[in-house]
């Protein structure tokens, strides 16, 4: 009994390692193994049934075991070629968002409009609200963090006016 359990767990580990080596899911590994064994794509219902047996009962079909041995041997020899095995056919790329390009375009347009609006803003001390004294380069927060890192205090308004 222990021999059977250890063999099943060994088969399970071989499938997981082989699927990881090919960078595909275990389900796609089953599809690839069937295609390589029989020369055709498996029927979805039959493959699902076999995969459920694998997931719940650790039952590994002989054609999957055959591919795990082939992949493991290629890995050990350092000659694993994903294209040669056919694993590149099962790499899933997530689909692009339905309106992704439109959203990116709108974001770029909004950024450009915002930048143009900021460049046209002027400050008139007589008509605008008073601004706090700040004479450093760039953003005030970044300037204050730079002074803090240097261990210094930010210059006061009086010293900035004297410059």
Mean of pLDDT? 80
Largest sheet: none
> Counting H and I runs of at least 4 residues, what is the number of helices?
8
Overall radius of gyration: 32 Å
* Number of separate domains: 2
Number of strands: 0
What can be said about this structure in brief?
It contains eight helices and no strands.
Written description of the protein model:
The protein has 163 residues and is mostly helical. The protein has 2 domains: 2-90, no CATH class; 100-162, no CATH class. The protein contains 8 helices and no strands. Helix 1 (2-22) packs across helix 4 and helix 2 crosses helix 4 (62-77). The chain is elongated, with a radius of gyration of 32 Å. The termini are far apart. The model is unreliable at 1-8 (pLDDT under 50).
Chart the SSEs and their pairings.
Elements: H1 2-22, H2 26-38, H3 44-57, H4 62-77, H5 82-85, H6 100-119, H7 140-150, H8 157-162
For the structure shown, list the relevant keywords.
64% helix, 163 residues, mainly alpha, 2 domains
